[in-house]
Amino acid sequence: MPALTRQQARMIDELAVNKLGIPGLLLMENAGRNTAHVVLEVLEDHLHLIAADAQVCVVAGGGNNGGDGYAIARHLAVTGASVTVLACVALDELEGDARTQADIAERMGLVVDAVGELFPSAVREHMDTAHVVVDALLGTGFHGQVREPMVPLIGAVNEAHTRGIKVVSVDVPSGLDCDTGQSGGIAVEADVTVTFVAPKIGFEAEGAEAYTGQVVVVDIGCPQWLVGEVIEPG
Question: Which of 21, 23, 32, 145 has the fewest CB atoms below 10 angstroms from its CB?
Answer without folding.
Answer: 21
